[in-house]
Write a structure and sequence with these properties.
Strand order of the largest sheet: 13-12-9-10-11-14-21-19
Radius of gyration: 22 Å
Shape: globular
Bound molecules: ligand MV4
Largest sheet: 8 strands, antiparallel
Number of domains: 3
Strand content: 25-35%
Distance between the termini: 47 Å
CATH topology of the largest domain: D-amino Acid Aminotransferase, Chain A, domain 1
Helix content: 25-40%
């Protein structure tokens, strides 16, 4: 087992990894920018190294400085968390070259899955159902038009290097293919330095359902059920849950089998997530694989009882996958709300600044993963998530009641947060019925006035 892990990240995920390491009796090293000097990951790690100024490019994305911090402290492994360098094939390679274990996939797997068109070909060959459409990279706008005319409209044009909706276009008619291709390809080139595009049949109002997998270095892989992630706004998830209210036992088995096939096909080691689109008839299609721990991993932990970060570290250290968990029994229902310092009444505008008063909910079935505290100043340079509230209860109905209770107890004074918006969603009939898809927030009406009291508390 590793003796000392350096966490190349900040915020709640850095804390989450520190907690797992300490329970495994592994020493921890935090790295931080000058904007995070007073951050809890710096305080709770055994050692901390300042790696630069606030700009991510000068700190959390700066590979030479992170490697130097490893050398200075004698760490033997690096946990990248999510975001930042977690899906950088180059970082994975440089870690290995410097004899530090990267707690994530090898560069070839990150590359293979980072290229979305290639990932679909790989998964299709492994027997995973993929979104129908032309295979591989399009030759150019003309090729896109020929393929789209063949397939019939509507179609989706997607950037192979993309993700989060960037470089993606819905095309409804033949005349629009060429201009859409050109603008999406240009957008991708600007954002990711690569303009490669692929084409897919458009799935109307899909659900976003993802499957957690765990693989070891002995050829074993298991799945740990699905997460329902359809409550998103502009490709930012706001609420996640497990299990999905739309997935029955039979579909869960089919989803899990598909994900395991995919994981085994690439000899996947560690934690990974298979993202699927699911249509109203419960047909599901592989979309992308995420080769990192995800923000929403706690809902899976709550219903399976497994510590995913501990397992991730153990898989990389050569332990065997707990295959007895192949027949895991889902226990109850879990929901997570991402708490962002954003103003839901003002187009979710980020709201950095000082949190002057801070009280987190507690009690039975409530978990909080947060790096914030009273007096904490939210920096402007990073994302606006200040924590996650996760609940666990016997069933979905009770989990919703518990989440309402938890959100009600929460006090955050200073920044505006997404909490009142999430309270409104918990009350929504469509959300409560469990019959919703990725279009949910497009039609959701938020009555700000009803929740104004939340700001006046304390
Ligand atoms: C799609 C789709 C419908 N059909 N692909 C959006 C983000 C990107 N990762 C994939 N996305 C979509 N791809 C086909 N062929 C609909 C979406 C989509 C979506 C997917 C998941 C969660 C929320 C979404 C919101 C709008 C569109």
């Amino acid at each position: 087992m590793y003796k000392k892990v350096l966490i190349a990240n900040r915020g709640e995920i850095a804390l989450r990894v520190i907690r797992a390491c300490h329970e495994l009796n592994i020493k921890t090293v935090a790295v931080y920018s000058t904007a995070d000097e007073l951050s809890l990951h710096v305080k709770f790690a055994d050692e901390a190294v300042c790696i630069g100024p606030p700009a991510s490019s000068e700190s959390y994305l700066n590979i030479p400085r992170i490697i130097a911090a490893c050398e200075i402290t004698g760490a033997d492994a690096i946990h990248p968390g999510y975001g930042f360098l977690s899906e950088s094939a180059n970082f994975s390679k440089i870690c290995a070259e410097n004899d530090f274990v990267f707690l994530g996939p090898t560069p070839d797997i990150i590359d293979a899955m980072g290229n979305k068109a290639q990932a679909k070909i790989t998964m299709k060959a492994a027997g995973v159902p993929v979104v129908p459409g032309g295979e591989g990279i399009l030759d150019g706008p003309e090729d896109a038009k020929v393929k789209a005319d063949e397939m019939g409209y509507p179609v989706m044009l997607k950037a192979s290097a993309g993700g989060g909706g960037k470089g993606m276009r819905l095309v409804k008619k033949s005349e629009d293919v060429i201009p859409s291709f050109k603008s999406a390809s240009q957008e991708s080139l600007t954002s990711f330095g690569n303009g490669d595009m692929y084409i897919e049949k458009f799935i109307q109002n899909p659900r976003h359902i993802e499957v957690q997998i765990l693989g070891d270095s002995h050829g074993n892989a298991i799945h740990l059920g699905e997460r329902e992630c359809s409550i998103q706004r502009r490709h930012q998830k706001l609420i996640e849950e497990s299990p999905s209210p739309f997935v029955d036992e039979e579909t869960r088995k089919a989803l899990g089998d598909a994900a395991i096939k995919g994981a085994k096909a690439v000899n996947y080691v560690g934690v990974g997530t298979f993202e699927f689109l699911m249509d109203k008839n419960k047909n599901f299609y592989f979309m992308e694989m995420n080769t990192r721990i995800q923000v929403e991993h706690p809902v899976t932990e709550m219903v399976t009882g497994i510590d995913l970060i501990k397992q991730q570290i153990k898989m990389h250290a050569g332990f065997k996958c707990p295959t007895y968990l192949e027949n895991f029994k889902l226990r109850g229902h879990s929901i997570e709300c991402r708490i962002n310092a954003e103003d839901p009444a003002n187009n979710f505008m980020p709201f950095p600044g000082v949190i002057t008063n801070f009280h987190m909910p507690g009690g039975k079935g409530v978990r909080v993963d947060s790096h914030a505290y009273a007096g904490y100043k939210i920096p402007t340079q990073y994302d606006s998530m200040i924590g996650k509230i996760i609940v666990h209860a016997k069933n979905r109905e009770r989990a919703i009641i518990r989440m309402q209770r938890a959100l009600e107890e929460t006090i955050i004074v200073g920044p505006k947060t997404t909490i009142p918006y999430q309270m409104a969603i918990m009350k929504d009939e469509k959300f409560r019925s469990g019959v919703f898809d990725t279009s949910f927030l497009e039609t959701f009406e938020y009555n700000q006035a009803e929740y104004a009291y939340k700001e006046e508390k304390v």
